[in-house]
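Need residues for this backbone.
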């Protein structure tokens, strides 16, 4: 038996908020792709493609099948942390954003642009996502693996839909974020609508 499901492009499905000082913020929203199974015979699942990572969500919880492209390098001598994040932004075609059924449906994509931004002296970095628990674990382990010390160099908190990292200076001299945004036009079903 085939599973019934829904495939949808969702504008503003993931977001970040980066603060240097009060009033000096970088905020952006990103389009995501979501598949939701809706049937009585199989375990219902949700697959989220958000900023380049893939999340599988079931009743037992969520897990990254593919992790997003986020890294951290810490220089213990200068006490500078350099972070790098690549975000894929799916820009939905307004006419073809969702479909439901039992079949197989293509998602057409077309490259739009890429921008690179360097944000120095980051005070807080927050991500807004319905999967805050796995994002908390992923971000915390990435910083910890770079030899940054939780509750000393940084603090990390989460709510039901947000994870926030605060970089502590001192002891850190600075935390810098290299942000790459790649925009891709996307639509569901064959045929391209301009």
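Answer:
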């Amino acid at each position: 038996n085939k599973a019934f499901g829904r495939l949808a492009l969702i504008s503003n499905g993931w977001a970040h908020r980066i603060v240097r000082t009060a009033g000096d913020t970088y905020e952006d929203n990103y389009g995501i792709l979501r598949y939701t199974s809706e049937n009585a015979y199989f375990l219902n699942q949700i697959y989220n493609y958000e900023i380049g990572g893939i999340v599988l969500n079931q009743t037992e919880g969520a897990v990254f099948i593919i992790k997003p492209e986020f890294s951290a390098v810490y220089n213990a001598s200068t006490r500078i942390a350099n972070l790098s994040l690549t975000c894929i932004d799916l820009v939905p075609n307004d006419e073809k954003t969702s479909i439901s059924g039992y079949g197989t449906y293509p998602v057409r994509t077309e490259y739009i642009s890429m921008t690179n931004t360097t944000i120095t002296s980051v005070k807080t970095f927050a991500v807004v996502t319905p999967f805050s628990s796995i994002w908390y674990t992923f971000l915390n382990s990435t910083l910890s693996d770079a030899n940054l010390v939780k509750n000393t160099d940084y603090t990390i908190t989460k709510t039901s839909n947000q994870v926030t990292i605060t970089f502590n200076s001192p002891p850190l001299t600075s935390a810098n974020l290299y942000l790459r945004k790649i925009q891709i036009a996307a639509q569901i079903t064959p045929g391209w609508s301009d």
